[in-house]
Amino acid sequence: MSGQSVRYRRILLKLSGEALMGGESFGIAPAVLDALADEIFETHALGVEIAIVIGGGNIYRGASGSTKGLDRVTGDHMGMLATLINSLAVQDVLERRGLTTRVLSALEIRQVAEPYIRRRALRHLEKGRVVILAAGTGNPYFTTDSAAALRAVELKAEVLLKATKVDGIYTADPVIEKDAVFLKHVPYLDVLNRGLKVMDTTAVSLCMDNRLPIIVFNMRDTGNIGRIVKGEDIGSVVSETAT
Question: Are 37 and 97 in contact (CB under 8 A)?
Answer without folding.
Answer: yes
